[in-house]
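Appendix B, example 12.
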Amino acid sequence: MPLLLLLFTGSGCAALVYEIVWCQLLQLVIGSSAVSLGVLLGSFMGGMCLGSIALPRFVSRRFHPLRVYALLELGLGIFGIAFLFGMPYVDRVYTTYAGHGLQAMLLRGAVCAACLVPPTMLMGATLPAIGRWIETTPHGVSWLGLFYGGNLAGAVFGCLLAGFYLLPVHDQATATAVAAALNGAAALLSLSLAAVTPYRLPAAKEAVESSASDHESWTVYVTIALSGCCALAAEVIWTRLLSLLLGATVYTFSIILAVFLVGLGIGSSVGSLLARTSHRPRILLGSCQLLLAAAIAWTASIIARSLPYWPIDPSLSSSPWLTFQLDLVRCFWAVLPATCLWGASFPLALAACAARGQDPGQLVGRIYAANTVGAIFGALGASLLLIPMLGTQQAQRVLIGVSTLGALLLLVPRIQTDKVGKANWLRPLLLSLCLLVCFSPCLFLAWSVPAIPWELVAFGRTLATYDGQWENLYVGEGMNSSIAVTQMPGGDRNFHVSGKVEASSNPPDMRLQRMLGHLPALFHPKPRSVLVVGFGAGVTAGSFVVHPDLEKLTICEIEPLIPQSVAPHFAEENYRVVNDPRVEIVYDDARHYVLTTPHKFDIITSDPIHPWVKGSATLYTKEYFELCKRHLNPGGLITQWVPLYETNMDVVRSEVATFFEVFPEGTIWSNTDNGQGYDMVLLAQTEPLTIDADALQERLDRPDHTAVKKSLEDVGFRTVVGLLATYGGQASDLAPWLKDAQINRDRNLRLQYLAGLEVDKDQGKWIHEALMGYRQFPEHILVGSGWRSRAVRLAITQSIQDHQTSIQD
């Protein structure tokens, strides 16, 4: 039995590595929107459900359980490797037929099902297969619970191994190879054990399932399904809230998932011990659900009323690993009670339905399937319905009600069927008392669930440094993210998403947002079609609508709440872009939209969220830039935002080097704040870029460009000379600085791991100084012989000399 426990631990480790790798690969194809993630999760868990049901139904008990298990592990390793090498072909097929709307969602579902259901069926079948080695006695059922706990322990290790080592240091191919090696080792060990351990098929009379309690088993199946529903719904909700508090990095998600799995594993182990000794597992299972109502209320209260106000300033830490320790403690403090109870529910459900003579594989398969079906509904319901429609506060209240319902399903029938001497009249009284005892505290607990503070939505992990002077203008929880709009005492407004300021009306941000729009629009002779990636406050998109040649502006935004609710707060700055008839807003993941759209554009400008936010690194990869390049018309331009704050030198070098890998003649345009590095714009054209300052000024002086000229003057660019003086270098100049920089690719997503470690750094000054040290006047780019062209030359060369002097000083 201990060796089998070891086998299942290794299997759980491999399964979590696969899950992380497969999700990353499929998100590159079908996108990262809530709908896409829901389809992906439903396919993954649906396959596990089918596997748990199918194995006991279609695989005879005559076969040695350990040999069956070995074949499942071998098959899973083969599928894992095939998945890695087969994804490029899936990408090509999907791109050929993909589109938008209902047909696109159905195609996403078909792709996910074809890729995930076969291997996940093997995953789901492993527990029923190994379960056939166990007898359906209290002692045997307790071992089943321990196997489940061992699987979860392996999953914890796999989650941390993949999230903190295999993927940050290596890549998806290495992670897949490690997982396949674990599958192979588990298969070999299982075959070795099968060779030395005889298996006796139960006699016919022993193999007949007991039906004495079948009429009551449905309540157990429904309860464990409700338990799974609550568990996955809570994971979705609490991950959303905790990622605000801890920072939405890939490491934060790994920590949250690991803590969740640790709690399930601890609970499963304790539940297994209780299942071995208890004669009334249904009462214990019902009591777990009742306690879960209190545990959910505990977590809701801790996340909203306690953790945000712990005096923790992450920027004080010199090492991200110290912050990770605090994150781990905070996650344990919040979610451990509930996860332990959910973990204990599984072995108790097994014990509640077990009867001597049952096929243990069928018993495990049914319970596991019921739990997984509930989990699918919980995860999809929370992400697609509960959070966007009700918000996290009401969603957690719903979970308390569902847990209470699960408790009543098991506890009420016990009172109705238990004998109370001859005084049958006591039963209605006891039933009423039970309902009162269950419902009253649960109603109070549901009522006590607090709303998430708007300060947490706005400031997230930096809430401890909030000075309390900002005014809340709007807060909302959308399908994909939580957002807020605030106003500072001086009148500047800020748009917050994922617990951080993403756009604002203060001068440095306004200048950057206008540069992202006006630079390519002015450098292009006649920009008719534009794609803007990321709506933000709408200022970048609005910068295009004042250009007279614009015919079609497409804005790709993943969160529908942002254009609807944020844009009105910045209407003056974004020129009411959402109401412009030339504007089309596409609600989709930008990577997916660029992959599937047949349209080409004169300009693509990308203003995504920070690269340290989980999932955003796909908008900074070499393959993404290649996609954008293929969707540019001849002479088309692309701009990309790069922040110099909340980052370090290596992260910026990776972003710039990846962009220049695809656009070797790309340029940098700097945006400073009081002379210090703030952020910058990467700009490239499909053909070699040439700029004539005098021609640009003549264009701005035309009557039809009056609004463009006014828009530039509003952010400090009163002449073309001032705008072009922001030139910060080109790819050929920066070759020495970019040497050995890590290229962010789809197969490693190196940037999200690199940036996730440096989110507390503020090295904008040093990064900007390093960049400016390589700057030279671009003779072949800034052309022209007029006085404005000479003024631009003078401004840039003087800036280069001043920088060299300051370095020498």
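The chain is about 65% helix and 10% strand. Residues 360-417 form the longest helix (58 residues).
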